[in-house]
Amino acid sequence: MSKSNIISAIDLGTDKCVTLIAKVNESNKLEVLGFSVVPSRGIRRSTIVNLEEALSTVGQSLDAAERMAGLAVKNVVLSVSGIYIRYKNSKGVVPVSSPNQEISSLDVDRVIEAARAISLPSEREIIHVIPKDFKVDSQEGIKDPVGMMGVRLESETHIITGLSTSLRNFEKCMGDLGLNVDAFVFSALSASEVALTETEKELGAVLVDIGAGTTSICAYVEGVLEFSAVIPVGAKYITQDIASGLRISLEDAERLKLYLSGDEEIKLVPLPGESKTEFTKRKKKFDLLDPEKVGISSHDPISRKFVTDVVMEPRIKEIFALVLEELAKAGLLDENKLPAGIVVTGGGALTYNLVDVARYSTKMSVRLAKPSNILGLTDDIKQANFAVALGLLAYAKRQGNISATSTGDFPLNLKKILSSEFFLGATERAKSLFKKIFP
Predict the structure, then answer these.
(1) pLDDT digits (tens, 9 = 90+) for 229-286
(2) Domain count within the chain
(3) Which DSSP state fits 117?
(4) 347 within domain boundaries
(5) Distance of alpha carbon 371 from alpha carbon 378, whole angstroms
(6) Alpha-helical runs (H) found in 210-353
(7) 3 falls in which pLDDT band (50, 70, 90)?
(8) Would you tell me how many other CB atoms lie within 10 Å of the CB of residue 148?
(9) Which residues of 42-58 are buried (b: 16+ CB within 10 A; e: fewer)?
(10) Residues forming beta bridges with residue 129, ordered by sequence position
């Protein structure tokens, strides 16, 4: 298998770590060869807070994906999010260098580099420089100026920045596993690769990726990225509300939330010939959920309506109120700039009734996105909670300068073995035994 057609992606979030290994097949489509999902440890609000635990998490996920694909990963593209993400729209201007005044790709590179020259605090660095459009002399709205004639070339770009220390910690985590990071990709930008259609981008749409600890936002206007942001509230806050409202553990609250989100029966409808009174009685009986059915022991019957309407709904409304607040600050709610509405992805997007509550509270069209156009082992991962990871593959494929490759063999990686929980545990046990024998 050729090295150049293999792409590896890691989405290391607050709740889970997803590793995908895919190839670009003969039809130039992505085909997933291996994937793995493990619970995250050492990550809070999409930021590493415990390097050893994060290292163990990525090592486990990577090992499982490699074994499924039969490949050893060397290079990866990595998602980044977190409340330290910022954006800035910047302009660059350069004279056309060619004597015959024909704009070349070199001129485009120069003008983008000129737009990149912005003043940043020492603790921040640029993650993305995304051209929005170009202006040749007085002609505006040009998407690709190469080959056109002109004297002066201008570019407006969307720049996304991150905290240097956070990025270096992610880099160190990957480096300790023998991995090179080909690119950091903002999570919402990544998800938009597979969740938004070109029509939605052109009309104007917002991608809202609801993770466990944070919610990431990307807004497109007239086909270009106009706005990026991260708000410090995610789906774990819904879990905490359930735990507090029912006085149960966070584990039981998460179990209940997932149960309700996947319970199709909850959308109860009248049966043919059933009277209104009979339906009301059946609805009241159904409303009381047996906690043993969910896996919660020693608890009274739980009211579905109380959990969904009283506990969960206010937090969902808060998340989308914060989304609207960010969009309003950027002036995107004026003049109907976002007629295609909101597209939601991420594990939090699967929360019961989230789309309906979001539609009601924002007064905008809202849909749940499920990634498509991905081949291979994707039956289990063509879901909204894998949009970021699948988007990383699509982003790497589209960027010709990114080559996240793997070798064709599967040698065991010594660093991964040494960082594994089994090895670390065995080492500690050996030390303890040695101290007992030789005090």
Answers:
(1) 999 999 999 999 999 999 999 999 999 998 888 754 456 777 888 788 878 787 787 7
(2) 3
(3) -
(4) yes
(5) 10
(6) 235-246, 250-262, 276-287, 291-294, 304-305, 313-329
(7) low
(8) 17
(9) bbebbbbeeeeebbbbb
(10) 159
Q: Are residues 111 and 74 in the same domain?
A: no
Domain that holds residue 130: 86-163
Q: Which SS3 state, helix, strand or coil, does residue 127 take?
A: strand
H or E stretch at 39: strand 30-39
Residues 46, 214 contacting (CB under 8 angstroms): yes
Q: Are 316 and 358 in contact (CB under 8 A)?
A: yes
CA distance 280 to 276: 6
Average pLDDT over residues 361-387: 83
Instruction: Return the closest-CA partner of residue 232 out of 243, 216, 249, 250.
Output: 216
- Contact yes or no for 46/187 (Cβ under 8 A): yes
- pLDDT at position 295 is 85
Q: Are 231 and 214 in contact (CB under 8 A)?
A: yes
The residue among 14, 3, 112 whose CA lies nearest residue 405 is 3
Residue reference for tokens 């579905």: 304
Same domain, 186 and 317: no
* 76 and 171 both lie in a single domain: yes
**Gap between the Cα atoms of 97 and 152, Å rounded:** 9
**What distance in Å separates the CA atoms of residue 62 and residue 60, rounded to the nearest whole number?**
6
Q: What are the distances in angstroms from CA 177 to CA 17, 52, 56, 180?
A: 15, 11, 9, 9
Find out whether 77 and 8 touch, Cβ atoms under 8 Å. Answer: yes
Per-residue confidence (pLDDT) for residue 281, from 0 to 100: 81
Report d(CA 270, CA 272) in Å as an integer. Answer: 7
CA contacts within 13 A on the Cβ side of 355: 16
Spatial contact of 191 and 22, defined as CB atoms under 8 Å apart: no
Q: Alpha-carbon distance 181 to 13, whole Å?
A: 16
| Residue listed under structure tokens 């909101």 | 342
pLDDT band of 76, cuts 50, 70, 90: very high
Q: Are residues 27 and 121 in the same domain?
A: no
> Whole-angstrom Cα distance, residue 165 to residue 318?
30
